[in-house]
Amino acid sequence: MDNRNTILLPLSLLLLFSLFLSPASAFVDRGEVVSRTLPNGLEVLVREEPAQKVVELQVWVGVGSRDEPAGKEGIAHLFEHMLFKGTKTMGVGEIAGAVEAAGGDINAYTSMDHTVYHITIAREYAGTAMAILADAIQYSTFDAAELEREKLVVIEEIHRGKDNPSRVFSEELFKTAYKVHPYGRTVIGTPESVRSVTRQDMIDFHKAWYVPGNMKFLVVGGVSASEVFDKAAGLFVETGSPGARRKESVEPAQEELRSFSLVMDADPARITFAFPIGRLTDPQTPVLDLAAAILSGGRSARFPVLLRDKGLVLGAWASAYTPRDPGLFIVGAATTQDKVEIAARALIEQLARLQTEMVSEEELNLARDQIISDKIFSRETVQGQANEIGYLALTLGDTDFNDRYYSRLQSVDPEDIMDVAKKVFRPEKVTVGYLTREPGSQPGEDVTARIVKDILVPGESSDTRVKAPVYRSILPNGITLLVREDHRLPLVAVRAGVLGGVRYETGEDQGSYNLLAHLLTRGTVKRSAHEMAQKLDSMSASLGGFSGRNSVGVTGKFLSRDIREGLSLVREVLTDATLPQDEVDLFKSQVINAIKARKDDMTSFALDLFRRTLFQEHPYRYQVMGTEESVQNITREGLLSIYRSVVQPVGMVISVSGDITVARAYRLTEEYFGDLEGGAYDPGPLPVEVARDGIAAQRAFREDKAQTHVILGFPGPALDAADLDALEVLNAVLAGQGGRLFRELRDKKSLAYSVFSFVAPGVDPGYIAFGIAVDPAREAEAVEGFLEQIRLVRREAVSTEELQRAKRYLVGSHMIGLQTLQSRGDEVFFPALYGQDLDHALAFERRINSVTTQQVRDAAGKYLDPENYTLAVVEGGDREDPDAGDAVQ
């Protein structure tokens, strides 16, 4: 349900470099990892987590885009795709199907330095997952016909990337910063280079790089290390050739400013500055990580307080990218089109402050605590643990790196920060980039050079979980309290909320609840926004508002030692927020810019069009952020009226999960919330959607985009529908890498890189959607492809094998999703808020496993009608590569 995802201003678009960044502060405790090298040279690493019912299995291969031969750029990524396309014993689709049939997730990714294949699965199927990975890694067949189809899929992926301004911007940065080193290449390649790859190229690539001595196999979770070692020895038996040797590449020292300029029809404008730095093992790395944290690591960091909150930028970030070879210190910002030069100057001024002013001990300690607490939080999931172990084992061959990194981190003082800032932030070393709608919005290279030279200082200085019972109590004032104890980590997750969100909005005030959620922590009777941010940073805690289609409230995560203060802060923002006018104005501006930027996310743009077409009366037709006009018209008085009306004890639910006893959770909740008074909020009658016959279609045109995005869907069930479980099983039959849509539309017809379907129930009836992004010339084929699968699932019962695969996939995904404290709290929070039976909510596995073939077919007949559906199409027109979408016959 959408309320489980905190829906705030989507500044996640600011994380432009997520495809490239590996955490420089990644460290693990070697004492918890055991390893053994097999006779063929493959190192196997295991971390036993007996309390975990989930297992993460990963194969790390020491090959990435940096290792590709000229003219074959993208082969490492294409190879990653092909590894799941069949082996000597498993056909196309059977690998993903086998994993999903066991309730697991399988995926892979390619970076500049390495390629990773990973499966997350229930521990009883760990042996099956090991066998699947070993088979794929050693015995893939690289069928020639499948290769041709997959090349088309990857080419579609390339076109999709060209439609994403953030991806285009980050790729251009690396291309400009690395003139010689292969880090300047795109990981995915070009349509021409991908087309040139042959089956023999794939076989040669496999022989050269996929050899035991160039790989690491690791397992984290509820397993026995000795059993993993024994099974791995029996599965990974191929010795292979000695393999290729990675060619070392050195980027020449940069001696003058470099720049790039992009013009795209996109909002917001983007700015970046990047400086060469060392690799992960460089002694300066912990110092640079601390500098980045001081600039943008928390709500009270310099960028949020001095740039964002003053309206100079919509968001800003800093990060030390420290891979295997020398990396980059990157700062950047998103801003409005009229403030590009102002924002650029403001970013440089903050770097110059690090060169000329000593940071305070308090600021430095906050940054240090943040880096350490981030490591604690990352260990909640087996995936997070495995990622750290695999990265360090393959990149450094040393999982003891933690000791040295942590020791250096603790010893850094303010003089170290200033010293490194002077060495790194040098005018002649900078790479500058801009992306705007109009060329005139960008300062020229001469202006940029003057800004940098004038401000910067030149030269150097000297169960996926423990199944805890749920305690439920209703306080005398009507608040429902839910508590789940889990003492494995010193963390406590809290969520408190009431009914609200889009469901309570009108066309005139849509977006109000989203804006209110933003503002809850931006000033209270006791604290300003800055003081609240400082308080949270001092606790290494998080606290923020959430709002979706059906609810509104706050969610937080605290170290268990600070839970008293944490619950006090939750109460403070829930009842004493002041919604200052300057904050209202600032966030209205940011939300409006985010609404404009959303148009660049073609899938989201198409889904918005779909919902507006499907729902004619019900508020579910509105976008959570609202429209530019509605947000502009929202007033502080209107927000205060909503706030004072909906936040009432009757109907409020508070969930507390983690390192806290039931008795203490109840005592603290009663202490901080027991005095609340008020009755349940009554929004009045809500509009009822009337069913329509026939096909309702809407179309939009984006001539600047290369792909057409199609959403086809139907009215769906409410959360309390008796047949919701059957519909979810049906969707699992259709969706996923082992599902019918993926096999038929992607694997067989090569229509798209990705195809999806999902069920979106609500407190009121929701919807079911099918989506795909295709070559504009193949739009009709894609629509018919959906309808063909819908007719088939209505006409014929799904097979027993498909039914079992879908059930295992749903149960496994559910278990994987419950690894964090917040997710375990949410498992009971939202059902309680929506008036559902908690025993029913907690019996997900039993409910799914009880679904029958007939119930699935009944659900298909009830909800999926090929004669009555809603169709939303956002048509693209900018495709320079006319034959990239040709079908393979």
Shape: globular
The biggest sheet amounts to: 6 strands, mixed
Strand content is 15-25%
The SS-based structural class is alpha+beta
Report low-confidence residues grouped into runs of 5 or more.
1-31, 460-467, 881-889
Strand order of the largest sheet: 1-2-6-3-5-4
Q: Helix count, per DSSP?
A: 32
**How many beta-strand runs?**
22
What Rg, in angstroms, do the CA atoms define?
A: 27 Å
Helix content: 40-55%
Overall pLDDT confidence? 90
User: How far is it from the N-terminal to the C-terminal residue, by CA?
Assistant: 40 Å
Quick structural gist:
This protein has 889 residues and is α+β, with helices and mostly antiparallel strands. The chain contains 32 helices and 22 strands. Strand 15 and strand 16 form a beta hairpin.
Topology:
Layout (H helix, E strand, L loop, with lengths): L33 E4 L5 E6 L5 E8 L13 H8 L11 H8 L3 E6 L4 E8 L3 H14 L4 H19 L2 H13 L13 H5 L3 H11 L5 E7 L3 H11 L22 E6 L5 E8 L8 H12 L5 H7 L6 E7 L6 E8 L4 H17 L4 H18 L3 H14 L5 H11 L2 H11 L6 E6 L8 H11 L15 E4 L5 E6 L5 E9 L12 H8 L9 H10 L3 E6 L3 E9 L3 H13 L5 H18 L3 H13 L13 H6 L2 H11 L6 E6 L3 H12 L21 E8 L5 E8 L8 H11 L5 H9 L6 E6 L6 E8 L4 H17 L4 H17 L4 H13 L4 H5 L1 H6 L3 H11 L5 E8 L13
Parallel strand pairs: 2-6, 7-11, 13-17, 18-22
Antiparallel strand pairs: 1-2, 3-5, 3-6, 4-5, 8-10, 8-11, 9-10, 12-13, 14-16, 14-17, 15-16, 19-21, 19-22, 20-21
Helix pairs in contact: 2-28, 3-8, 9-12, 9-14, 9-15, 11-15, 11-16, 17-23, 19-24, 25-28, 25-32, 26-27, 27-32
